[in-house]
Structure formats: structure tokens, C-alpha cells
Write a structure and sequence with these properties.
By secondary structure, the protein is mostly beta strands. The chain contains three helices and 17 strands. Helices cover about 5% and strands about 55% of the residues.
Length: about 280
């Protein structure tokens, strides 16, 4: 097992004076540096993984049968010079905190102005807004609870059946889930939810998208209760023949209360502006 990773920020004395900061410019092409990390941690089924991701970057999470978490990350930094990259690197990184059956992956960086004011008051201001990202790929036990805060970038989650909470600013998210208690909130983008089973193994789901397209794929013979709403501009499209209205409700272009098959867990889908499409999955 890999021990907990702790980062110690470098001394503030290496940062340039205020006059040097003013003279420094970020015009011209940026230099890119990419580093990778690969770590493995023990985690029993029923544990929790918390990911506080970078402002940008992809996230891929896969459930597997091993009692361990395999974490791979690619950190890409950009700056005007190699010397500037050396200044940024200790801050634009992540730490892993390992507790009893709980692994926290915490990303820190120059995007966090409050953090930088606390730990590096004299850090060059022209380096604070430079682009950087972390691409995460994580494999973990299938019965793991997940708590994810993400920024901008694609997200893929498959093969997990614990409690899932996902918040993202902007994403094209591909979710292949068969159960658990799921809460997904995305500000803008596209969410593709595929349920590769004939029922939902768990309490249900709540998928919310402020602006964009939410596509739901159901297998033939799927059973669940489904609620869907478009709150403002947009429509609901139903291309799943086995979906029937329930409790005297009608299926229309803005709101549906429906049942697939014999019913079961309740799946809730909400879009502010955009579309919800419920169709038969090809899987």
C-alpha cells in the first residue's frame, strides 16, 4: 500500500519581488510540461472515494473486482518559461489522504486565489490564471461510494453501484450505471446515461442538467418508474415503446410520469434548458 502523500509548499523566498512581477509578461507561446503519477491503495468494498478534481481535465472511473484503488493521473502545466513551470509545479498538483476505508484525492492549484493568498502571498500574479489540467483515471471496487466535484472536461463512469454524487461545471458525461443511489448535477453539456440491465439495483437516481442534452438509454424489458421534466426551453422525446404513463398522468413534451415494465426504483431526470431523450439502448 502506498502511504498518504503530503505536499509541503516551497519557501516563499524563491518568488520574485513585486517589481520583477510587473516586468514579467505572459505574451507569446507557452511552454507545456506533462508529468504522470501512478499509485495503488487498498480499499475494501463499501468504502468511499472522494475526488476534488482540477478546474479542467478528464475523469474516467471504472469499477472492478479487486479490493484496491488504482489511480493514474496526467498533470499538464503551461507557462511562459521552464522557470515559471518550476514555480507553478508545487502548487498545481494533488494530494491523497488515506483514512479507514476512505480515500480522498484533493487537487490544489493556482486557480484557488484564497489558498494562494494564504500560502504564497508574493506569488507572481501573471502566473495565477495560466491554463492547466489533470486527467484522472481511477479503478476501484464496484461497491464503492463516490463523491466527485469536477470542473470542465469529459467524464466517464462505469461499473460502480454505491452511492454516487457528481457535481460538474461543464462536461460531456458518459455514465453506464446499473444501480446505487445516484445524484448527478451538471451545469452545462451533455449527459449520456446507459443502464445496461433490466432493472435498477438500488434506491434510484436524480440526474439534473441546467443546460444541454440528457440522453437516457434503457434495455428492452427494463423496469422502473421514471419522472422527467424540462423546466424552461426544450422538450422531452420518448423513443422507448415500453414506457407507459402512470397514475393518470400524461406523457407530453415537458413532463412525464411514466412506468417501464413492472416499475420499481424511481429515476428522476431534470433539464433546465435543453432536451431529454429516452430511447431504447443498443447494448
Amino acid at each position: 500500500m502506498v502511504k498518504t502523500v503530503v505536499f509541503v509548499f516551497i519557501s516563499l523566498s524563491i518568488f520574485p519581488s513585486a517589481s520583477a512581477q510587473k516586468a514579467k509578461q505572459t505574451t507569446g507561446p507557452l511552454v507545456t510540461r506533462t508529468t504522470t503519477r501512478h499509485e495503488v491503495y487498498r480499499l475494501q468494498p463499501g468504502g468511499t472515494v472522494t475526488l476534488s478534481a482540477a478546474p479542467a481535465g478528464s475523469i474516467i472511473i471504472e469499477g472492478w473486482q479487486r479490493n484496491e484503488v488504482e489511480l493514474s493521473a496526467s498533470i499538464e502545466l503551461q507557462a511562459p518559461s521552464a522557470a515559471d513551470l518550476d514555480l507553478i509545479a508545487p502548487f498545481n498538483n494533488f494530494a491523497v489522504d488515506v483514512d479507514v476505508n476512505h480515500i480522498r484525492i484533493l487537487t490544489t492549484g493556482t486557480h484557488d486565489r484564497l489558498l494562494m493568498k494564504r500560502v504564497a502571498k508574493n506569488f507572481p500574479k501573471n502566473l495565477l490564471g495560466l491554463p492547466w489540467k489533470v486527467d484522472y483515471r481511477i479503478k476501484l471496487p464496484a461497491l464503492t461510494d463516490l463523491d466527485i466535484d469536477a470542473g470542465n472536461g469529459p467524464i466517464t463512469i462505469s461499473g460502480v453501484e454505491g452511492v454516487l454524487r457528481l457535481n460538474a461545471l461543464s462536461s460531456n458525461a458518459d455514465l453506464s450505471l446499473t444501480g446505487g443511489l445516484v445524484s448527478v448535477t451538471v451545469q452545462s453539456g451533455t449527459v449520456n446515461l446507459i443502464i445496461p440491465g433490466r432493472g435498477w439495483h438500488g434506491l434510484g437516481s436524480e440526474v439534473r442538467l441546467a443546460s444541454g442534452n440528457l440522453n437516457v438509454g434503457l434495455m428492452p424489458g427494463f423496469s422502473a418508474d421514471i419522472n422527467a421534466d424540462v423546466l424552461r426551453v426544450g422538450e422531452i422525446k420518448v423513443a422507448y415503446p415500453e414506457l407507459q404513463s402512470r397514475e393518470g398522468s400524461s406523457i407530453n413534451s415537458k413532463s412525464i410520469r411514466a412506468r417501464a415494465g413492472n416499475g420499481g426504483a424511481t429515476l428522476n431526470f431534470t433539464v433546465g434548458d435543453g432536451t431529454i431523450e429516452i430511447r431504447q439502448s443498443k447494448q
